Each structure stands twice: as C-alpha cells, then as structure tokens.
Amino acid sequence: MESMTVQLDQGSGGRATHELVQDLFIQSFRNEYLLEMNDSALVNVGNGQIAMTTDSYVVDPVIFPGGNIGSLAVHGTVNDLAMRGARPLYMTAGFILEEGLSLETLGEIVSSMAAAAREANVFIVAGDTKVVPRGKADKIFINTSGVGVVPPGVRVGGQYAEPGDAVLINGTIGDHGMAVLCKREGLAFENEIRSDSASLNGLVEKMLEVCPQIHVLRDPTRGGVATTLNEIAEQSHVGIRLEEEALPVREDVAGACEILGLDPLYVANEGKVLVFVPARCMKSVLRVMRDHPLGRNACKIGETVSNDAGRVFLRTRIGGHRLLDMLRGEQLPRIC
Amino acid sequence: MKYLDEYRDPQLAKSLLNGLQRRGRDGRTMKFMEICGTHTVSIFRLGLRQLLPANIQLISGPGCPVCVTANEDIDRAVWLAQQPGVIIATFGDLLRVPGSSSSLHVERSRGADVRMVYASFDALQIARENPGRQVVFLGIGFETTAPTVAAAVRRAASEGLRNFSVFSAHKLLPPAMRALLEAKDQQLDGFLCPGHVSTVIGAAAYEEVVTRYHVPCVVTGFEALDLLQGITMLADQVEKGEAHVMNPYRRAVSWEGNLAARRLLDEIFEPVDSTWRGLGEIPRSGLKIRCRWKDYDAVNRFFMPRIEVKEHPGCRCGDVLRGMMTPLQCGLFRKVCTPQNPKGPCMVSSEGTCGAYYRYEH
After folding, report:
1. Distance in Å, alpha carbon of A222 to nearest chain B alpha carbon
2. I want to staple A228 with a disulfide (CB 3.0 to 4.6 A). Which of A182, A220, B104, B241 is the partner?
3. How would you list the strands of the sheet with A87-98, edge to edge?
4. B101 touches chain A (CB under 8 A)
5. Tens digit of pLDDT per residue, chain A (336 long)?
6. What residues in chain A have their Cβ under 8 A from chain B's Cβ atoms?
7. Is residue A1 in some structural domain?
8. Do the domain assignments include residue A200?
9. Same structural domain for residues A131 and A217?
10. Shortest Cα distance from A26 to chain B (angstroms)?
11. Burial class, A145, CB count within 10 angstroms (exposed 0-12 / middle 13-18 / buried 19+)
12. A GO term (biological process) for this protein (chain B) (predicted)?
C-alpha cells in the first residue's frame, strides 16, 4: 500500500523527513551547498564566508514553560548558524497569522522574540506579515532566515567527524520536547518541566576559542540526539558508540518519559549542542563548556569509531549493545 | 526515579547474568516466551538477548495488542473512518497498521477525521465538544487497557452522551497462552507473564496454564533486574522439572489482581470468541460490549458491511506472533517491509517484534 500524499511523520524530523528532503528537495534543487546537508550553508562572499539558513516554526502550544514560538524562532535560527561555527548577525522574520489570534498573545511572542535577538546579538532586519482565515493556520507560524560570518580557520560541519573523536553534549537531553508535550497534553508533574530553548552562539564562540579544530557542532532538535547522531554518522561515514550510563537526563524528564513510554534520546532539544572534538581537545573544550551558563552539565557521552560506518550503537547499563536508529514515524506513548 | 533505579543496578544485573551463564553448561536449550510487547521492547533496549547464554532463548509472543488485531478489524476501523460525520479516536500506534487496502493514517491524509488520543477519556471529551458528530473510540488492548474503556462507557452513559461509542477489538491474554500450548507446533519451557496485564488479572490467572500444561509462569516487571530474575526463576523451575506460578513483581501485581477493575470489566464487557492475527479464532479470547450497554457499541450503532479481507502476500507476522520464526527469517523484513512502509503490524507497532528487531538489532 503506497500512499501518495504527504504524511505527518514526514515533518517529524526523523527518517521520514530525511528521506523526503533527500528524495525530493535535494534531488530537485541539487547543488554542492545543499548536498552537504548541514544546518546552514557556507557560501563565499568576497574574500570571506557567510553562513545562511532558513527555518519555520509551527509549535503547539505557542507559549510553553521556558519560552514561546517567538524566542524559539530566534534561538533556532541563531543555533543553525552557530552550528557551522558562524557568528550570527542578521535575521528576517515572516509571520503567518490565523484570524482570531489574540493581539496580547502576538505581543508577548514578538516581545520575547526581540529580547532573544538582543541577547544573541542579532538584528531582525526584515519581515513579512500575512493573515489567513480562521482554520487555515494554527494560531501563528513563523518563518525565519539568518546570516552570519564564519571566522577564518574555522571548518565545522556534519561531514568532518573522524574516528577517535569524543562526542560531547552541553547538558541534559529531552527538556524542550517534554516541556511542550506536557503543556500540550495537560500533564502535570511535581515540578514543571521547562524548555531548554536558548541561543548557543556565545557558548560555541568560547569552545572554538580553545579548540578551533572542532569537527562537528549540531543541535539535536526534532528527532532528538539519536536522530542527529545518525545524520552525522551518515555524513561523516563513521560509527558512533554511546554510553547509556553517561547520558544526562533530568530526573523529571526521565520520569515523564518513563510514564509515557518515550525515549529521551528521541525527544527534541532547543538549547543543546553535540560536539565532536579530537580526543586531545576534549578536556579543554569540556572545561570552557562547564564554565558557561549553558554548559554546566557538559559531559562526554560517546566516541566515534572507524567500523560500523553510518551507524550508532548504545552500550546499555547492563553491558548489552543495541542499535540506535533514527526516529521513525512519530514517537508515541505505549498502549499498555 | 527513586523507585526505578534500584531495579536497574548494573552490579546486581551482572551477578544475575553470571548465574544464568552457569546454567548453560549442561547444553539443554530452554525456550521462554515473553507475551508482553513492553517486555519485548525492554529486552531489546537492554541488549539482553546477546548477554544470555546460547541455550537460553527468549521468544517474543503475541503480546502486542496492535499486532494481534485481525486485518478484518483494521478494515472495519478504516470503514468507520470513511463514514461522514464520524470522528475516530484511537491510540497512535494503530494509525499506520495496514489493513486490506488502506490504513487510518492514509484515511486521515485523505480527509478523514482521525484523532490520536492517549486515553479513552480523551475520546469522551471529543464527543462532548462535537455534539453533532459521532465519535468512535477504537478499543484495542489487553486486560490492562480494557477497564479504562469500560469506565469511559459507564461515564458516557451517566452523562447521557449519545454520540460516543466503542469499537471493541480487545483481547484477553490467558486464552492466547492456552492456544499457543494447544497448537503444539512450538515447544515452550516457560512464560514471562506480562507485568501490566497481571496488575488487573492477578498472578492467579496463570494457574490453569501451569496445572494443565505443566509450563512454568513467572510474572515479571520491566526493569533489568525484573527480567533477569524472571528468567532465573523460569530456569530454576525447568532444571528441577517443576512448574509453578511465581510472582516476583509483587510491588505491582497481587495474587488476585485488581478486583475493582475486574468487576468493571465484567460489568461492561463479556468474553466472546475472537480472531487473532496469526493465531486464528480463539474461544472466549475477546471482549464484546454487553447488551445492556449496546448503545455504546459501534458495531450496534453502525451497519457495517462485510469487507473482503486481503492479507499481504508474504507477510509472516502470524508466524512471528506465534514465535515460530524471527523477523530476520521473513523475506520481506528490511527489504520491502520497513517502519516507513510496513506490510504487517509487527513492523509498525512500537511494541511489535519486527519493529524491535529493526530498531535495535545490529
């Protein structure tokens, strides 16, 4: 049974999205920049390089603990640029508003967007507004573009991981996805789970200062850490081994995932960065990460290997090994 | 996590594993079947199968409620979704399961109003918010899920909701265990009995299996130590030639089960013969809404036509569900049957054996 219509999980950020992008968009728009499959494209301008990116935000609910769709749009775009080692400079913002959206909500979203841009030191320099009839959009959609400059000597991308790299992360995983899910489904736990949504350019800048040889930076957003690591393993033709014991997960997030039957490795993050560094740089990079407010819980979670290229394995707490695949379909709570 | 971490202790797990390794020395093979989809997923997620000695084999049985749902029931759910004015409320896992010619997922993309819910009471809320439309909750699941559906029926009745009904494809596990043992095409040495189901039916529910078929049953939780202890207890019994019901999962499961839930089940549902994918019709293994509550039975509310059921040629989900083969032995596995384009339910369900092999095996 082949279906000939777009399916929801083709937007989930997992394997289905990956295949749609590869089979349709990349095939049609085919060029060397897109083929790299990175968060932003590096293009030559004059004697230097700039990074360019675009993204759309369609989160439900639009306001969630720890942020809203406006701040998220800035953080996401800034991070797409920062993940190439670029210094984000300018953004654009296009708004598609559903008739009936309260102006109070819109005001709150725009003002937190402005605050997030100030904090990340980027200017929102152009924009667009469209209003569609009620039911034709879900409250508010935001599309953004961003540009930044790449400092000389920096060469960061998903294709540059090498065997022997240490894989680091700046903190706990799954916070954003669980905050949004709990809010959307009205699930209340003892402590409110808050999104980790944040601009990572400041942290990335510090890391590149002590180790310009960082190979890969990637923020594990939709599809979570597991999907992102699979993308990097494919792009760089390396295997990745993770240690379950080393994975940092907040207790409340772990508890919520446990109750719903979800795996935090597939839950979205918006303020986390996966870092692939040559082993010799690991200690210095970890040190500056832990000195930064967004990297206090930074740790090593695994390493790259030359065998099993393109695949990610997890060593479980009891010493077993299992394949860690990309997210397939949507992650769904179990039935029983 | 305070009460979970202690059941994940790596040192204790290693010591139980060492104990199991010592059992392999006499060369006797032991085949234990887990009949709970969550057990299957836990076993794969822990990487447990590779850590056991070669002579202790874990076989996945018909423990995934989505997987055992007959094609015919999926087709009827698809038919319901196509009816004008109907809203289908269902657990997400059921969406992608292919029926004879379509799935709920495909019907939704074609315009059907199919909504994913987390609980039967969410479906009631949809009914309250849409008084002009009929809301049908697709009731699948074992004894764990059925009581909550029964509660939703009772609540709908007490509120006088006239636009809510249940399409019941619920299944009961002990009759399936009996059917597996009766079939005699699979020699099993013991069952890891389901933790969730047992909270409702109690450990006593397996007594008949033990006495009639002399097959050990151990009620097991879902953590590393639970599973290792369950396997150890089964191996002990096999070595001694004994067969008992044992319940090391007493923190959640009592001998008699949850009496209130059982009473509720009995009030709303009655056992009927039911068709299981792979196992065929099993006497008194399904749940039908009792006549007294027929207003809430979708089968009563809608006149469903007879649908010609077609199975995908080559799909071996039935054999996988009976533990007769592993997904790796299926000609479709990974080649034409993938989670993106599943040919059978064992690939699509998050608790399905094929899906688990696809996601977690090397």
Report:
1. 17
2. A220
3. A41-45, A48-57, A140-150, A87-98, A123-132
4. yes
5. 445 688 777 877 778 888 899 899 999 999 999 988 888 999 999 888 999 999 999 998 999 999 999 999 999 999 999 999 999 999 999 999 999 999 999 999 999 999 999 999 999 999 999 999 999 999 999 999 999 999 998 999 999 999 999 999 999 999 999 999 998 878 777 778 999 999 999 999 999 999 999 999 999 998 999 999 999 999 999 999 999 999 999 999 998 898 888 899 999 999 999 999 999 999 999 999 999 999 999 999 999 999 999 999 999 999 999 999 988 766 665 554
6. 1-3, 5-8, 15-16, 19, 185, 245, 251, 254-255, 258, 261, 263, 313-323, 325, 328-330, 332-336
7. no
8. yes
9. no
10. 20
11. middle
12. protein maturation
Strands annotated E in chain B:
30-34, 56-60, 86-90, 113-116, 134-139, 164-168, 190-193, 217-219, 245-246, 269-276, 280-289
Q: What is the pTM of this model?
A: 0.85
The helix (run of H) or strand (run of E) holding residue B200 is helix B195-201
* Phi, then psi, of B347 in degrees rounded to 5: -85, -35
- The answer to whether the beta carbons of residues B242 and B211 sit under 8 Å apart is no
Report CB contact under 8 Å: B102, A316. Answer: no
Q: Do A1 and B360 touch (CB under 8 A)?
A: no
A259: exposed, middle or buried (C-beta count within 10 Å: 0-12, 13-18, 19+)? exposed
Residues B165 and B137 sit within 8 Å (Cβ to Cβ): yes
Half-sphere exposure at residue A269, Cβ-oriented, CA atoms within 13 angstroms: 30
- Residues A75 and A84: their CA atoms lie apart, in Å, by 15
Answer yes or no: do A317 and B361 touch at CB < 8 A. Answer: no
Q: What is the CATH number of the domain that holds A66?
A: 3.30.1330.10
DSSP state of B331: T
Domain end call among A80, A115, A150: A150
For residue A291, the enclosing domain spans 166-324
CB contact B354 to A (< 8 Å): no
* Residue whose tokens read 């379950």: A244
Within a domain: residue A317? Answer: yes
For B140, the closest chain A residue by CA position comes to A335
Q: How many domains does chain A have?
A: 2
C-beta of residue A242 within 8 angstroms of C-beta of residue A167: yes
Closest CA to A174 of A108, A224, A124: A224
Indicate the residue type of B146: A
Asked if residue A258 and residue A178 are part of one domain, the reply reads yes
Q: Which of residues 254-283 of B touch A (CB under 8 A)?
A: none
Q: Which residues of B touch A16 (CB under 8 A)?
A: 340
Contact (Cβ atoms closer than 8 angstroms) between residue B361 and residue B44:
yes
What is the distance between the terminal CA atoms of chain A, rounded to a whole angstrom? 28
- B residues 151-210 closer than 8 Å to A (CB): 196-197
ipTM above 0.95, yes or no: no
Q: Are A123 and A224 members of one domain? A: no
**Between chains, do B109 and A6 touch, taking CB under 8 Å as contact?**
yes
* Residue where one domain finishes, among candidates A150, A181, A206: A150
Is residue A170 located within the same domain as residue A319?
Answer: yes
CB contact (8 A) between residue B340 and residue A19 = yes
**Whole-Å CA distances, B58 to A151, B24, B29, B41, B191:** 55, 14, 11, 12, 10
Q: Do A89 and A134 fall within a single domain? A: yes
B90 in contact with chain A, both atoms CB, cutoff 8 A? no
User: Position of tokens 């800035």?
Assistant: A74
Eight-class DSSP state of A213: T
